[in-house]
Design a protein that fits this description.
Keywords: Oxidoreductase. This is Xanthine dehydrogenase family protein subunit M. By secondary structure, the chain is of the alpha+beta class. Among the domains are: 52 residues, Uridine Diphospho-n-acetylenolpyruvylglucosamine Reductase, domain 2 (2-Layer Sandwich); 102 residues, Enolase-like, domain 1. 29% of the residues lie in helices and 21% in strands. The protein has 13 helices and twelve strands. The strands form three sheets. It has a five-stranded antiparallel sheet. A hairpin with a 5-residue loop joins strand 4 and strand 5. Helix 5 runs antiparallel to helix 9 and helix 12 runs antiparallel to helix 13. It starts with a strand and ends with a helix.
Amino acid sequence: MYPFTFMRASDFQEALAAGSSGGRYIAGGTSLLDLMRETVERPGALVDISGLPLRDITVNSSGRLRIGALVRMAEAAAHPDVRGTYPVVSQALELSASAQLRNMATIGGNIMQRTRCPYFRDVTAACNKRAPGSGCSARGGSHRSHAILATSEQCVAAHPSDLAVALAALDASVHLLGPDGERTVRLADFLLRPGETPDREQDIDLGELITAVEIPVHSRPLKSGYLKVRDRQSYEFALTSAAVCLHLRGGVIRTAKVAAGGVGTVPLKLPAVERRLIGERPSKRLWAEAAARAADGARPLPGNRFKVELLKRTIERQLRVVGGGE
């Protein structure tokens, strides 16, 4: 470790003032503290925001579900409004990390977590995300767990969050508060693809903090679920994952929301899969034909080429689990 200052914010004004001066916000600390121990992150000041009133889970009059940024992952997974309405969110949370970490980690911190790429976490390795312009060691090194979609020449690191995959499928938004007031950003726009600036991972400005994530109203009944494929059953990040949400009426799929994780530099909606599903009746043939489009545009490296087929199988399996059909 190295010297840094620490303060506990008593209200939003105090937090924003400290954040605008370069302080890093911390609540559960399950991700940031690891990076500080490895000297990947070296903030000069930490601002504890755990005392701010951001722990509510509410459903407004129109049916939009809002989860406060400081709600613990375990609390969100167990909440009846989350579990009953959006099983895909509860399942994604329960498949994330260990029970101990879920009891500490927050919703806001989860979607802000940084990649688990070993080269990013090794300060002696070349990493454009950590040190822009230094290169990408993963391209010529070990990249089995890395992304095959939404990559760039600068970065192929996979996004680690399971929750963000479920939120992406549900078209969730992120609410932010900063020195210039409040704003709302679609999660799909909040989490940034690497492009030429892989070090910029979120659409968040100096001093801003996440106050909540919000899921819009979806047609009912909505069947949903999350599948995570990994090398071992516990405390492991996804090789591939699938968040599937389907609204059926009269035996026909009226709405389809499908997103993939473990294969992209950000959680990715799969519009080609969704388009193939809408207006059709559930069947094994439909699931296979839709899933065949899951890896459209993939750019695998030699060591993770297997993810192309694995992604298709993951999507097909979860479509079958959520949608049924013979």
